[in-house]
């Protein structure tokens, strides 16, 4: 039991420090809430207009797929370093691993997880002002919105 005493003390010390920090911030910190302080923080940039459309989830899906395949490629590096010592067992194990990666990639391609829509799709007249305004300052977006209306 005495072997676990340092771990228990560290755990108790962590809880006391966290609780003390919250208590000190509550008691000593200034509390003058106003509309600006209660607003959501957005990297210091004050939002002046709503975005034209929501950010597509497909970007996040592709990012997660990239990370998964990137981690799988990291497993190939140690195999390449000790390839000669592993002999046939290592070759078969890495072959099974690569087969699983290729099957997963084929599934992603067949399910359309990596497709971005119809190739060569024309920009419709309703979307054209939004495409034009993407590279302009926020104040010019209002002018463009009046031009379209």
How does the SSE layout of this entry go?
Elements: H1 5-28, H2 35-38, H3 58-74, H4 76-81, H5 83-111, H6 128-133, H7 138-148
Task: Please characterize this protein's 3D structure.
Among the domains are: 2-31; 120-149, no CATH class. The mean pLDDT is 78. The chain is mainly α. It has 7 helices and no strands. It starts with a helix and ends with a helix. It is flat and about 70 Å long.
Key attributes of the depicted protein:
149 residues, single chain, 7 helices, mainly alpha
Task: Describe the main β-sheet briefly.
Answer: none
Instruction: Report mean pLDDT, rounded to a whole number.
Output: 78
Rg result: 28 Å
Unreliable stretches (pLDDT < 50, length at least 5) are none
Our estimate of the beta-strand percent is under 5%
Distance between the termini: 76 Å
Written as H for each helix and E for each strand, in order along the chain, the element string is HHHHHHH
Instruction: Kindly state the number of beta strands.
Output: 0
Structural class call reads mainly alpha
What level of helicity do the residues show? 55-70%
Shape: flat
Number of helices: 7
Short description:
The protein is mainly α and 149 residues long. It has helices at 5-28, 35-38, 58-74, 76-81, 83-111, 128-133, 138-148.
